[in-house]
Amino acid sequence: MNAPKISPPAQVRTYSPEPALRRPMTLFRDMARDLSLSWELALAIARRDLSALYRQSVLGYVWAFLPVLATTGVFLFLRSGGALAKWEHPIPYPVYLLVGSLLWQVFADAVQGPLKVVTKSRAMLVKINFPRESLVLAGVLTTVFNFVVRMLILVPALVFFATRGQYEFHWSSLYAFPLGVAGIVLLGYVIGILLTPIGMLYKDVSMGIGMVLNFLMFLVPVVVALPREGMIREVMLANPATYVVDCARGWLLGVPSELVGGFWVVVGASLVLLMLGWLLYRISLPHVIARLGM
Amino acid sequence: MKDDDVLIRVENVSKRFCRDLKRSLFYGVQDVASEMLGIDRSGKGLRKAEFWANTGISFELRRGECLGLIGHNGAGKTTLLKMLNGLIKPDTGSITMRGQVGALIALGAGFNPILTGRENVYIAGSVLGLKKREIDAKYDEIVEFAELDGFMDSPVQNYSSGMQVRLGFAVATAMEPDILLIDEVLAVGDAAFRFKCSERISKALGSAAVIFVSHSAAQISQICSRGIVLESGGMVMSGEIQDCLDVYEKNQMAKSGSPGKEIVSREISEAKFEFPESCGSGDGMDFFVSLYFKEPTIKTIVLRVSFMLGGQSVAEIQTVLPVNDGVLERERVSVRSLDLGRGNYALDIHILSEDRCRHLLRRINCEHISVLGSDWGVAPYRIPTNYPST
Predict the structure, then answer these.
(1) Is there a contact between B53 and B76 (Cβ–Cβ < 8 Å)?
(2) Shortest CA distance to B286 belongs to which of B274, B296, B295, B298?
(3) Which three-class secondary structure state does DSSP give residue A260?
(4) Does the first or last residue of chain A, that is N or C, have fewer Cβ atoms within 10 Å of its Cβ?
């Protein structure tokens, strides 16, 4: 091997029961350093998770959008049969529903992402010390990748709708839509990260998230449009997901949503909560790992 | 010696764990909340159902030193390693680690079974902090050390545990860390692999500090210069590796030794053996055998005394003794030189009939002898030569 090292080692780490918050400068410096070290690792972990996910299946990436297509198909069928109320929105229902469902799926992925990736890496967490920000970053990369796959279904669908005159392309979509999607991913991840520490200890959290996301889909304007007034409108407006989903869809389809103001409020609050979530994630992990067993 | 060279400093470190799962999870929530609020809980004692997995551990390790971490199963060795590796926080005291840390704490950690060996090397490498081009440079060396040429493109789930540990060790040591932490994973490998590991660790000692956990006294005494012995979470001994192994073996014997077993055939009414408590390595030794048969029919017996180390028989005395009128009255058996290495041996005593077909007496784990000497060496049997052994 190499000649013995002669220069003193650069990195000194101290571990003690002292709360990390008592030394904020050290804490923030460590957080920044770990974040910078995380990128390459995040790519490797994302690649690992994605290829493992689809390697053992025949249909592979089709599973990314099959569930959405199925539920969309069912709702179209119900509405065409007159099972649901009359549609009065400028955007034609099939387009509205398909785009909304896909965007909701991205949100649901983002909320469940952090807890899923951390749980999957549990074996690694209890044995190796590595910058754990990489796990969350890997989750973001996975969510974005799955979103891009879903776009592959959306693009031909939009072309189809365009031929039927139900959809018109706007150049502004090209920069506004990604912004909207970024808002969805940000909100979802913030919620996900805040829930991760307790989710690692108690299984109730992951089970609960799944259940809540399922019925919450009906309390955002995806399957039904945002009513002009009434209690349903109030309930929908109380849900931050409403703003990001509606605006993203509006930007894609060139019919700007009325909720753009709220969108920015949600994004701003998310950025603040993101810092809090990161701090909580970092501080809680050693305590959680101690409880996870050998 | 410069203080610069101290790579690991552990001062009065302890760790609390909880036995009950539900309570443990709740304490986890409590601990996170305390830390988020900036509360330091180190002064507090044990909550309900908690116990100390580690108490009051202190030591220093410099570059070039190898510390053997010895203790019974459940003594707190892995917990201590996890604290050194920064995975969990100590509840008292402090730990200072200088330099890059490489750890081999479990088999296949970070290996995804569906992915191939090659893919896993790249991932494990980046987990340990290597960039892709650094891993490229070391890839061939890793495969060669692990002896997995031709297997690197198969999924890891097809690897045996021996193959996995070879790969894990190769990757962990490839990054040439300043501090190397090795838990008892090496036991899974075969003898040839363990020898290669010892070699590589010895080489690494030129530029690193190593902490090595093993139950194999031979391997530890070969690689390590110092040791600490853990017993139920506390440090009972710290110092020269030979002394530590002594203490550890004595405790092990005390645990597993009792109760001894004895099976005596109906023909014997009483049997007594007197062995000295200790004997120097290579010295002469006398022991006494007393046997009383019910009938004077048996004229000759075969006495076999097996010297047991770690449950294995490493040497034996086999003699033919004449029985006079059904009685052996304190018969002296002399050993010219007890050519055994230093250690605590359990004695298994067998008395067989002259034709060796029948067992007349079996006494297992009832007698012990300490062989004194200055070093452990590797093999128990010492072949004497015309030169002194120490």
Answers:
(1) yes
(2) B274
(3) helix
(4) C
Q: How far apart, in whole angstroms, are the C-alpha atoms of residue B35 and residue A287? A: 10
Residues B128, B129, B132, CA angle at the centre, nearest 5°?
Answer: 110
Cα-Cα end-to-end distance for chain B? 29
pLDDT digits (tens, 9 = 90+) for B187-207: 777 888 888 888 888 888 888
Give strand pairing partners of A12: B98
Sequence-ordered list of residues with C-beta below 8 angstroms from that of B168, at least 6 positions apart, any chain: B104, B107, B108, B109, B111, B124, B185
Asked if B127's CB is within 8 angstroms of A12's CB, the reply is: no
Task: Tell me the backbone φ, ψ of residue A106, rounded to 5 degrees.
Answer: -60, -45
Contact list, B105 vs chain A (CB under 8 Å): 127-128
Model confidence at A2: pLDDT above 50: no
Q: Residue B373 in contact with residue B384, Cβ under 8 Å?
A: no
Which residue would you say has higher pLDDT here, B377 or B18? B18
Q: Residue B105 in contact with residue B181, Cβ under 8 Å?
A: yes
Q: Which of B95, B99, B88 is nearest to B11 (CA)?
A: B95
Q: From CA B374, how far away is CA B390, in angstroms rounded? A: 7
- Over residues A13-72, the pLDDT tens digits come to 889 888 888 888 989 988 998 888 888 888 888 887 887 777 677 777 777 778 778 888
CA A99/CA A101 separation, integer angstroms = 5
Closest CA to A75 of A103, A95, A89: A95
Mutate one of A129, A132, A195 to test the B interface: name it (highest B CB count within 10 A).
A129
pLDDT digits (tens, 9 = 90+) for A266-284: 999 999 999 999 999 999 9
In the stretch 2-21 of chain B, residues with CB closer than 8 A to chain A read 4, 7, 15, 17
Cβ-count burial of A173 within 10 angstroms (0-12 exposed, 13-18 middle, 19+ buried)? middle
Question: CA distances (Å), A271 to each of A194, A275, B110, B178, in order?
Answer: 13, 7, 31, 38
pLDDT average, residue stretch B177-195: 83
In angstroms, rounded to a whole number, what is the distance separating the alpha carbons of residues B359 and B264? Answer: 8
Q: Which positions 38-77 of A are in contact with B (Cβ < 8 Å)?
A: 40-41, 44-45, 48, 51-52, 55-56
Nearest-10 crossing angle of helices A133-163, A260-291: 140
Distance CA B232, CA B51 (A): 10
Give the Å distances, CA to CA, from B319 to B16, B307, B333: 55, 14, 9
Write down the ipTM of this complex: 0.81
